[in-house]
Amino acid sequence: MNTVNVSRRRFLRASALAGGGLVVGFSLSGCARAPLPIDPDAGGWVPNAFLQLTGDGHVRFYCPRDEMGQGVSTGLATIIAEELDLDPARFDIVFAGVHEDYDNPAMGMQVTGGSTSIKAHYAPLRQVGANTRALLLEAAALDLGVPAAGLRTDDGHVVHDGARHPYARFVATAARLTAPQAAPLKDPADFRWIGADFPRLDATAKATGTAEFGIDVEVPGMHYAAVRRPPVAGARLKSVDTGAVRDMPGVTDVVEIGSGVAVVAERYWQARKAADALQPVWHDAPLARVDSATVRRDYEQALAGGAVSDGVDVGRVSGPSRGDVDAGMATAETVVEATYWAPHLAHAPLEPMNAVLRIGDGEAELWTGTQSVSGARGLVARASGIDAERIRVHNTYLGGAFGRRGTLTHVTEVTEIALATGKPIKLLWSREDDMRHGLYRPASLMTIRAGAAGGRITAWDARRVGGNITPDTIENALPGLFPAIGDRGVRWIAGAADYAMANWFADGSSIEGLFEDYDFEHLNVAHVTVDHGLPLTFWRSVGHSYSAFAKESMIDEIAVALDADPVELRLANTRNSPRLHNVIRIAGERMAAMQPAPGRHLGFAAHHSFATDVAEIAEVSVTDGRIRVHRVTCVVDCGVAVNPDIVRAQMEGGVIFGLTAALYGNLQLDGGAIRESNFHDYPLLRMDESPEVEVIIVDSGTEPTGVGEPGLPPIAPAVANAVFRATGQRLRTLPLTLEA
Amino acid sequence: MVRFVLNGTPVETDDAPDTPLLWVVRDTFGLKGSKYGCGAGLCGACTMHVDGAATRTCVLPVSAVAGRSVTTIEGIGTPDALHPLQAAWVEHSVPQCGYCQSGQIMTAAALLERNPNPTATEVESAMAGNLCRCGCYPRIKAAILAVGALAHDATRSEETPA
Fold first, then answer.
1. What pLDDT score does A86 carry?
2. Cross-chain Cβ contact B134/A653 below 8 Å
3. Which residue range is the domain that position A640 belongs to?
4. B134 touches chain A (CB under 8 A)
């Protein structure tokens, strides 16, 4: 097991030192295009972008997606290994460099996110594995001088007449053959590794401190950089006296960059101390007039159709609709209306943003843990003027991401610093930098009015107020993904998206999850854009992270109003969503059988997101105003569970990440600056506050769907619904706080 | 010049005495397993043992370990010779992103040194200062309890004549 990472590290080092020879690989479409970013071993065979079989028996898997903890490297290795017929634990895993063959099929870009990786790569990587195995069999038939029909494979060996020949023996012949494009796939009944539980392939590296993260990379001559940025997003530097810090120990350079002032030193601590000693003066920025109370007040005013703060635009658009909501409300026996609030949140991955860049003569090498190596390469190209084809990007393990490592302002910063100083640079953000200078989950105010008749929810009128997630993400992602578009072009496109989503059509990411799951006859969705200018981006489960709280709390409120069982009500209104209906049914049966101890209460919620259906039951107690979640039962249907234990881990993680948001998460603005700075005032759930999580995987036999995010959305409403049963208080504001 | 013992080997550094031990170990001595997470002793990712005690090294000046013995994740086990906790971490597929895990294991190792067979409550209490953003807590707890149970079984089998 340990060889997986040891050899990977050795490989990264070796390729760094060698400067990286390139090999023209076998592209999936069969036509030779740009060279693959693969260093071939002597005698190594690279049948496609994803594999290298070395002459000495190693099999290297070039993982096209980024490992941020979600287990994607194990999952994708398992898929390709199953058809190649090789124990995935024997792969050496390498994170792929930039090449179009590594694009995420779900996006057409080299980006990891949206819980898409297993779903999008399941069929293509099975085919790659099967094609490679077929080629090895053909080569073996030639080398052994026997008909291919008499050969089979077994865990990295071709078996003939009881003799086992390692794949490596046939690599030289296979390299001269043409691979089939559509070799037959295994019957899923014959799967050995897909669906089996075995330890994650990165577990040993991560348990021994040998897994390499971006922060761990070193290159010869490297200096360390720390950056001072404005407390208020968007403010520009007015002046800074750098004289005092230039003489501090180890400091070699102090340079102004686009985002602020960078200090470069021989050691990280020297750079940090010097950056902290700077006293930059910043220009004013519009966001400086905004407090968290301003945001909430403006959202409430906008929802009511009133005026908001000067200089803040309001855009109103209609979202999906069907039937006639007014008529539906008029004929309803019961109408329930409520408004819910979710605050801004930070991602706070435990590894702060960092990057290492070495710029040479017309070429460069970047090391960073990112959700988009191609976006990272584009940003270096844009900031340096170096041809993108001559920039090599090495991805590392990501110390958490949750959406945060898709926006790479730190890559632009490190490029500016390396250019200005002429030194190889490691840029490392502090925790405070991460908390205060990032991009955030938008705050949301959501109102739902629902009408019910005869046990059916007939009318649903949902409205969300807040900033839009997509335009900011476009503005930050376009420069890297499409370096040919100039800065003005980027601003124009982002501005157009911003305007269009405020005034023409709703941003899907901002309203997702608010209305899709139930069989409403009459539906109306509206969106009100109010954006004060705090940078926003995707945050684990995106719009679902807040919309599920509103939607599933409202379903519970309707059940209370109708004096109905909350599970029965959900079952009666999900006839058009059979997979969701099924997880609700299974979870409902589990809940009916539960006998919580005195003082503990159960809450239920279900939600469909990223093509996966999840129902959760939270067992909660409330003591002296403090909410404690003891146990969570999670029923998930994600189709084929490629690695069931990783599915369970993602549900556990989604629940706990979601509980941090439900019980603590509250990022606040004071004069436009983020008030919180570190884990003392932006707390994460701790082990002694963490529930037991039981995960039940429903096998529906469909192709795999997402698991990185779908465990999160149901937990906040499940807890809120349990708190209502415990106390009679309906908590409609996140984080959940009981009235005294 | 500060002299101390790092994973059993005497070392010396001319890093400024106020430099946190974490950076000296990571950047001067090149042991990257201990991580920076908060710089304020709040998350535990930097945990090492100083004279056997689990210590937050992102806020501990290197001068404070002069003449003392420091053990890092690299000092308790390697991929080829895993510490029992590391083996349990693999067995239970504990890590997700993995960034906090060195600190988690070092805190757990110090716990088991002084209490080889802790209860679940004792584990929770000892580990409450080590944050995990991915939410691996149920598995961290299970892995520590499994190692504790092994120790318990070993003790019992020693006590019980064959």
1. 97
2. yes
3. 294-345+441-468+507-727
4. yes
